[in-house]
TrEMBL record:
A GO CC annotation given for this chain: cell envelope
Compartmental location: Cell envelope
Full protein name: Substrate-binding domain-containing protein
Family: Belongs to the bacterial solute-binding protein 2 family.
GO molecular function per UniProt: carbohydrate binding
Domain spans labelled Periplasmic binding protein: 46-300
Keywords from the named record: Signal
Residues annotated as transmembrane: none
PANTHER family, per database record: D-ALLOSE-BINDING PERIPLASMIC PROTEIN-RELATED (PTHR46847:SF1)
InterPro entries the record matches: Peripla_BP_I, SBP_2_dom
SUPFAM superfamilies: Periplasmic binding protein-like I
Cleaved signal peptide residues: none
Highest taxon listed in the record's lineage: Bacteria
Amino acid sequence: MKGKEERKGRLKWLIKRVLLLIPVACILLWIYAVCQTSSIKDQTKIGVTYMTMNNEFYKSIHSEISRIADERGALVYVRDPELDEKRQSQQIDDFCAQKVNVIVINPVKGDSQPILKALKKARKQGIKIIAVDTQLKHFKPDASIVSDNYQAGVLIAKELMRRSSNARILLLEHKGTVSADTRIQGFKDTIKGHGSYQIVSELETKGQTEIAMPAVRKFLQSGVDIDTLVALNDRSAIGALAAIKEQGITHPIAIYGIDGSPDMKSLLHSTDDVEGTVAQSPLKMGDRVMEVIQDMTAGKSYQKEITIPVQMMTKENIDQFDVNGWQ
């Protein structure tokens, strides 16, 4: 009997203890919820849209942005419009609906009306706009972070003129993209006035290997003679190389690209298939994007126009670089 009463007593004691702990637990849960809500509310949200993710260059920029964002507890939404300007404008609208703090855009087309309209809407919502790798036309972003694209074209022209006293040149382009247009313009301006350097033709490739290869194949089949090929980027240069090999062209064609991609550096280091590439630094580009975002969201002053230097890579200096990764 006595043991039964003791058990009842212990049970009552336990019930009292539990009842006392319930309000404490509720208070702790409430504090946790408030902290979490505050943390989410203060979290920087970044919307990123590149013209395409079918390019290791943009993947490398994004890997750096994503890495630093994770370290800082920022939330990143990334979208791929697949070179479709209307799709990219819709992605910007989606970022607005998600109430991001910053939009990082690598525009499909610098003067696209749907894209510019969507960006103006975002700005009205107080969203900061950063252009990366290529600029916008008729719209001034809050910050732009690009390579020295004009100088990239100049460097290729100077290297070509140093190596050869004349050339019949095929240009591979991506019209409407400011960075690509600027590179080609830098090249054209540098050879201007030197009549022995002749631009035979210009092909649209959108900077894609799978577009460059058939375009160059068709050109080669036309029978027009060239000895130099200058591409807006490494991906299109590699597509051109594939077409040249496929067609069994035996006379030398000097191929130049822009990016300094691992694939192009490997070709430069191990083969005679390409003459050079101008190195960009997507890792540095991504790092600078996140520096600007940190200052923007903290209400600090920040650099509005950042131009990252480029460097000519040739067989003469390729050993100075890491051929396995991006710079």
